[in-house]
Design a protein that fits this description.
With 351 residues, chain A is an alpha/beta fold. Chain A contains 13 helices and twelve strands. In chain A, the strands form two sheets. A six-stranded parallel beta sheet of chain A has the order 2-1-3-4-5-11, sandwiched between helices. In chain A, strands 7-6-8-9-10-12 form a six-stranded mixed beta sheet, with helices on both faces. In chain A, helix 2 crosses helix 4. Chain A binds a DNA duplex (16 and 16 nucleotides) through helix 3 and helix 5.
DNA sequence: GTGAAAGCGCTAACAG
DNA sequence: CTGTTAGCGCTTTCAC
C-alpha cells in the first residue's frame, strides 16, 4: 500500500466529523471555522468530536475554495546564509502560529532558477512572497512586479513603490561611534568595506556626523586580512595613533584586534574596537570578544512576515522603505560597562 | 480588488485551454499530462494553446485529486545553520526541477514547536519529510514515526529501521591522517571535541587506526580557545613536539594555527595542521588557510531529496544508515601539493 | 480517439 | 439555527 493510499484511507474528513456529531457537513464546517450562526452547544459538540476524532482539515481543499493557500514563498540569493538565516528564522516565527508555512526558494544569483521558483510559487498559489538577499543595495535576479500576490522586500533592494524593509545602518553606526565617544575616545578611525556598498557610505557618513568631517575612513575588502593590513598602515604612520577603531564588519574587526595584539597593543585598554553584524562565530571567538552592532535581522524577518500576512488578508500597507533600528551588543573589546542585557554567551554546539 | 480576486480573475484554467483548442476538458488534461490515448496532432495542439495562453495548472486542485502535493517538509533544529544550510541547499536543488517545493520548518529544540510544524505538514499533505539536525547522534524533539508519509533522516539520528543519511566521519578522518603520513609527518596528534560526541569517537578511532594505538588524542570544547590551549599544553611538555595536528573541527584548527604562530612555529613548514568541516569562513580566514575535511553536506542533502522523491512515488527504498564519503580539501596549512581541484577561494560578499 | 460525468474535501450562498 | 446545493480546478473512469 502506498503512502498516499494509507493517508487517504486513514484520514478523517469533515464528513466523518459531521456524521458522528449528527450534523450536516455545512454546519460542521461553520462550527469549526467559527463562522455562521448556531447554538453554542452545537458548535462545541462539533469541535469536540472533531478533536476526539483527530480531524485535520485538508489544506488543499480549503485552499481550493478559499483561494488562499496559507503558504508564503521566501526567495533568497544568499546561499551562504549569513544574513538570510536570521531573516528566515524571523519570518518563519511570525507565520507558524498563524498556520502559514514557508517555501524556501534559494536561487543563488541565477535568473533562470529564479524563474523556476517564481513559477512554482505561482502554481502553488502562495499568498505572498518575501524577497531577501545579502545586500541592501542589490536586487534579486527576478522580476517580482505584476505578480498576482503581494511581495515584501527584506534586506534586498526592491522597486520604487514596493514595501521594503532594511536595517538602519546610519543609526547603528551612530550608536557605535557615540558609545566610543562616551567612553572617552578622542581619535576614532573607521575601517570598513568597499565604497561601492551603499551601507558602507551610510555608516561612514554617520561616523563623520559624530566625530567630525575630518574623521578618517579606510576602505578595503570585507576580510580579516584587510583589518590586519589597516592596522599596519595606521600604526606605521607618524603622529598620534588612534585610540579606537570602528569597523565595517566583524571580520575586519577581528583582523584589527589580532593585529593590535601582535603589536602588543592592549584591547580595550589602549584601543577600543567595535565591529558590525554581530556575527557570533566571529565576534565571540575574538580575543577579547567584540562589541558589535547587531542589525536585528530576525526582527526584520518577523516584521516581513507580519506585513505579508496583512497584505495577504487584503489589508492595505503603505509602500516605501522602512528602516529598522540596529542595536549595539557590548562585549569586552571597547571597554566601558555592559549595556545590553542579551549577551548570548552561546556555546556553539557542533558535530 | 484583492490579490486573491485578481488572481482568480486573470488566471486561465484548463477549461479555457480546452475551449480554445476545441477539445473537452478531459482531453486537454490527458494531453497535458501525457496520459490517455489520442492523436499526436490533438496532443500537440492542446499543448501549444496551453503554452500560448500561458496556462499554469492549479497545484491545489491537482493535489486534491492526485493525493500528492509536490511539496516536502524540511525539519531542522539547527538555527545556527552551520550544518543545515548546505543540506537544505542540496535538498532544494534536487527537488526544484521535479517541481517539488520545500517547506522550511525550523523547530529549535522545542518539542511543542516541532509538533506545530509536523501538524502543519500533515495538513498541507507534504509528500515526505526530511529531518535534519546539527548532530549525527542526537534526535530531533519530535516523533516522526507512524506518519502517513515517508521520512528521511539526514545528519540527525533516526529510529532503528529508518532511512538515515550521515557523513562517513571515519573515512574522512582516515583520509586526512593518511595525507599527513604521506607528507612525511611522524608525530601526529589529534585535538578534538568532547568525547560525548559519537563522531568524535569515530574520528579518533580512525586516527588511531592509521597512526597506531598509541596515537595521542586530546579532548576539549569545540572552540578556538581549546585549540590554543592544546598547543600550550603540548608544547610545554618535555620531549619531542608533534609535527602535525589533526583537529576535530576548523575552529580548533584555527586556534592551533594561531597559537603556533604566536610561538614562532611555522605552519606548515614545521607543523602541519588539518581541520574538519571545511567551514569556509574559518578555514579560509586562517593564516595559512586550512586544509580541511569537507563532509559533503550538500551532496547529502541532494541524496536526501532524491530518496524522499522515490519514496513519495511509491518506490521501495532499503532502510538503514547510509554513510556518504567526505573529501579532503587541501589548502596551505599542511604542506604538500594541492590535490583537490575545487578550491573555493570565495570572496565573502557582505553588506 | 474523445467526451460526459463523477468526484477530491471543503466552503459559502441560499433556503427552509 | 441548520441543511441543501453548487461549486473551487483538475483528474479519471467509463461510455460512445
Amino acid at each position: 500500500m502506498r503512502y498516499a493510499d494509507v493517508a487517504k484511507a486513514e484520514r478523517i474528513r469533515i464528513y466523518d466529523v459531521a456524521r458522528v456529531a449528527g450534523v450536516s457537513v455545512a454546519t460542521a464546517s461553520k462550527a469549526l471555522n467559527d463562522t455562521g450562526r448556531m447554538t453554542e452547544a452545537t458548535r462545541t459538540r462539533v469541535k469536540q468530536t472533531a478533536a476526539a476524532l483527530g480531524f485535520r482539515p485538508n489544506a488543499m481543499a480549503r485552499a481550493l475554495t478559499k483561494h488562499r493557500s496559507f503558504t508564503v514563498g521566501l526567495l533568497t540569493n544568499d546561499t551562504y546564509g549569513r544574513f538570510t538565516l536570521p531573516v528566515m528564522a524571523g519570518v518563519s516565527e511570525a507565520l507558524v502560529d498563524q498556520g502559514v508555512s514557508v517555501f524556501l526558494c534559494g536561487i543563488e544569483d541565477d535568473a533562470a532558477l529564479g524563474k523556476v521558483h517564481v513559477d512554482a510559487m505561482l502554481d502553488k498559489q502562495v499568498d505572498g512572497i518575501i524577497a531577501t538577499g545579502k545586500r541592501i543595495d542589490r536586487r534579486l535576479p527576478v522580476d517580482l512586479s505584476g505578480l498576482p500576490m503581494p511581495v515584501v522586500y527584506a534586506f534586498t533592494e526592491g522597486p520604487e513603490d514596493a514595501i521594503t524593509l532594511v536595517s538602519d545602518d546610519a543609526q547603528g553606526a551612530r550608536e557605535a561611534v557615540e558609545w566610543l565617544v562616551q567612553a572617552g575616545r578622542k581619535n576614532i578611525v573607521h575601517v570598513t568595506g568597499p565604497e561601492t556598498f551603499v551601507s558602507v557610505g551610510e555608516r561612514a557618513r554617520a561616523f563623520r556626523a559624530v566625530v567630525g568631517e575630518a574623521g578618517r575612513v579606510l576602505h578595503g575588502p570585507w576580510s580579516e586580512a584587510w583589518g590586519h593590513e589597516a592596522v599596519g598602515r595606521l600604526w606605521s604612520e607618524a603622529g598620534d595613533k588612534p585610540d579606537a577603531v570602528f569597523c565595517g564588519n566583524d571580520q575586519i574587526a577581528r583582523g584589527v584586534v589580532d593585529a593590535l595584539r601582535e603589536r602588543g597593543i592592549v584591547v580595550p585598554d589602549q584601543v577600543s574596537v567595535v565591529g558590525f553584524d554581530n556575527w557570533e562565530i566571529v565576534s565571540a571567538a575574538t580575543r577579547p570578544p567584540l562589541t558589535s552592532v547587531d542589525m536585528n535581522l530576525k526582527e526584520l524577518g518577523r516584521e516581513a512576515g507580519r506585513l505579508i500576512l496583512e497584505l495577504a488578508e487584503g489589508k492595505p500597507v503603505e509602500p516605501g522603505v522602512r528602516q529598522l533600528p540596529c542595536k549595539l551588543v557590548v562585549r569586552q573589546s571597547c571597554g566601558g560597562v555592559r549595556r545590553s542585557s542579551d549577551q548570548q554567551g552561546g556555546v556553539l554546539e557542533e558535530v
